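Slide 14.
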Amino acid sequence: MSAGNDFEKRTYNYLRLAMIAVLILLAVAILRERAKVTGCWQGSISAYYYTPVHAVFIGALVTVGACMIVLKGATTFKDVLLNLGGLLAPVVAFVPTPNAGSCSSAEIVSRRAAVDIANNMFAYFVVGAVALLVALILGLTAKREARWGRTEVGGFVASVVLWLAGIIWLKADPDSFNGNAHYTAAALLFAVIIGIVFMSARGKRHQPVAGVRERRNFARAYGVIAAAMLVCLVIGLIARSSGILWIETALLGLFLLYWVLRTAEQWRADTEESKSE
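Slide 15: predicted structure.
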């Protein structure tokens, strides 16, 4: 293994660890807030936006989104899903749930949400335009072996469609966007995450770990996690507001478990490869 490749693999592994740390950060912030309140929870994780968890909630989602975009998927389609998930996560952060809740250790954060959303989403759409333009230039100027195929083109088109749909929605009906964009982005984000986990369960391009049996064990674990996440998402769509906190908690907990296992698998693969050099 060259020093360059080793550096790149370590960087990706540390990015995975960063995602794990950020998800734990959000969990700890919510649990500490809950410990200071007697006998109640907010109606959803998103509602903790209005509590002292505010900054951690926004920072965690933006960081997770950035990490998902930076990480390279084992397959082209998985990489596209990671990019789409990375685009959706900041929307969940910047557009708060309309339900502020009433369970907080301090006065519920009261802001002019429409003004915040208009400002922050404008900035996000501008950065999104720059990112899409850069991606297009890189795709068109890449060397022959790195040029876009159908999947990359499809992923780029899907990203552009999401970007345009967000702009049109916000411009045409701000009230509808402010009231529904959070839920729409969150549902799509969880759907993308489930797709990523399913691909890990069925993927054939994992680097070898200790052996075929151990690799299969990881794949089975991903399959169980993906199935459990799908059940939670379906229940959440049916239940809507009822019990949404526990459904979101289960989904994020399963995502955290997946990422811990995926990091362990990749780290072990890199270690085994280093030994074989």
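Speaker note: Residues 73 and 79 are 4 Å apart (CA to CA).
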